[in-house]
User: Fold these one by one.
Assistant:
Number 1:
Amino acid sequence: MKLAVPKGTKDVLSIEMEKYRQIENIFSNVCKNYGYGEITTPVFEFTELFKRGVGETTDVVSKEMYTFLDKGNRSLTLRPEGTAGVVRSYINNGMTSLVQPVKLYYMGKMYRYENVQKGRYREFTQIGLEAFGSSKASIDVEIISLVNMFFEKLGISDLQLMINSIGCKTCRLEYNKKLKNYYEEYISGLCSDCKIRYTKNPLRLLDCKVENCQKVAKNAPLFMDNLCGECLNDFSTVKQGLDNLEIDFTINKTLVRGLDYYTKTVFEFISDNVGTQGTICAGGRYDDLVELLGGKQTPGIGFAMGVERLLMELESREINMTNEVYPVLYIATLGEKAYSIASKIAYELRKQNIYVDIDVSGRGLKAQMKYANKKNVKYVVVIGENEIASNKCKIKIMETGVEKQINVDAISEIIIENKA
Ligand SMILES: [Zn+2]
Ligand SMILES: [Zn+2]
């Protein structure tokens, strides 16, 4: 019986893996230029972390988590997102006592039991970052500019940036009251989830995907019109900062993020590209999350984006992320003795960081030449009894077909000189 992969997962084969690697490299370069260091946290954590950190009323926690008991009867969950784990790590590892802000980026697999559709998997890859310890909106601008720069380096410069503010603890209290007042007369018509949200977390009401709930949400009071002085001030700092860097944005007053912990600035980068429309990157500030997870009050801000979604976007724009490398040298061999000489030459050259290929399948000369052609090799040499005896062999430049005679014991040297 042939075994398939579980629904919502996939094998990443080498050509595609190369694309992941490229994205990771570009991302980590941009992050490093902004002073971020990499962090890796466990793929599974105590379930409690996500319940508290992401929010029990969110779809992610209430419907989409891979939760299980381990053999010691602990409730564990495969991480559905990256922020909660990084925050926990920030607290556990005493990073509060480091020079602030502490800036961390990550790339890794996340897990959500979701409907599988194009570009959406149950095991997926996210890249993202978190910055702790700065309450100033200037870091909001810096992070948005980092994302913008990352997209530019990928060759995408026409994404739409949406920003909004969803206030702080103080103004949220007032706003929640207003929201509940507004929703009161519609309660009976809301979906069952929204009925729970109404009492537990009214802000979530605005985020519901059910059609009828969306209709009600349309005329709900806007957070933007209910911000306190401090939040208004921060929001204008964000706008000015983006203007200063000439980064275009749109204010979207209905933008709320799907997770509970966000405060003040929230943002999304959206693609208008037909076929891949939708959010590519989402982030925002979370000034109460560190405290919520047991640390001391510390402001934070971050974002995340799905790499599979990003790859789809790049593909639809025909941006090629593969960087195929071909062997510099192929050594065709005839006989055991030739093979041992060739394998020594190959070993030496590989040590010098040069991609060399030799026959390890016992092919005949003709088949070896065919193989070298398929692999797009730059130079081919053939070594057999005669070549060993005379120390003379031919090197062929595959592109032009030109052949030259060289010494067998000079192959390495010549390749090193001409590898480019
Ligand atoms: Zn406020
Ligand atoms: Zn609803």
Number 2:
Amino acid sequence: MDIFLYIIIFIMGTLFGSFYTLAIYRIPNKIDITHTHSFCPNCHHKLGFFELIPVWSYILLGGKCKECKQKIRPRYLIIEVLSGIVLVLIAKGFNISYSNLQIKTLIELGFLILYLSGIVIIAGIDLEKRKIERNVIYYAIGILVLYIIYLCIVDKTNIYRYIMYLSITLILLIIDTLILKKKANTSYALSILILLLIMVVFTGEAVAILTVIMTLLIIALYILLNKIKTYKSKVKITDKEINKKLNIGFYLAMSNIIMLIYVIYIFL
Ligand SMILES: [Zn+2]
């Protein structure tokens, strides 16, 4: 029965989700993401095996650290469950079943998961620190290079499209590193542009356009709500302050995932 396959896929998704929460916390704090043992950020108690199981550990521990009873943020549970759901939706969109397990589909799905992992981590870090983490951008570009190599072996027809986008991304990165290094604001904008280019490559032009439209709508709504809030509270919040709290990378990534699933279900 395929239901068991999808339960396994869901559990895999929650494991990915568990890794995302770890990466989102550790990468900006410069903690090693693979070797350091998982620990409670409050009392540094090392997590045992059962405390590492996604979703269940949260429920069993009642959302608290076993040692210091510090509340674990529900965000961890939400990211784990959502990752499970998204992976199930995408696998279903790719028509994965016991009778339809083709290597080519699995490889494509693998690349998509590697890409999505990158943008989820970028989104999480942007939401926390309002910063597009450069190391994760490099990771995504690395995946893109691997994908181009894969296409070279399997299907050379649309490889030029990828190489073109890769070249533009690399040029923007060089401009950013060499010229704009000290101007934080321009650098954020440019990082968003680089992120968008990576999205175009992995999810296609149509999904990318829908992503941009959805992101612009979210930003417009965000600004509107903030204007109403300022108007009501009579405490002046300047446009600059509103812009500074605008996590464009986060909105872009979330819109991209939603639009990707939407397009998979509507057109495939
Ligand atoms: Zn603790």
